[in-house]
Each structure stands twice: as C-alpha cells, then as structure tokens.
Amino acid sequence: MASPGPAPSSDCGSAENIDWRLIALVCDMDGICMLSMPDVDDVAFNRHLSVMIEKELG
Fold this sequence. Notes:
Structural class: mainly alpha
Number of helices: 2
Shape: elongated
Order of helices and strands: HH
C-alpha cells in the first residue's frame, strides 16, 4: 500500500507554490493556444498570464 505522502502545506502563498501555479497556467494556456481556437491567441495568453501574476503577487 502506498503512503499518502507529505501533508499539504498550508502556505499557499509561498514562492514555490506560486511558481508551480504559474507554470501550470502557462503549460495549459500553451496547449489551448495550439488548438487554434478562435479568440485564443498570443494576446489572450498574455492577458491571462498578466492577470494571474497580478493576483498571485498582489
């Protein structure tokens, strides 16, 4: 039986946690941009990334 691993950190605002959330956003947005969906382009990518950075860093 596998162990559940370490307990989740309650420090959601740590630099490491912010880094991983931004990395996940960039990877997901990159994949969505490759689908060539309308209104999902570099401008939308940059807008969403800017909003997320602003929310994370306040």
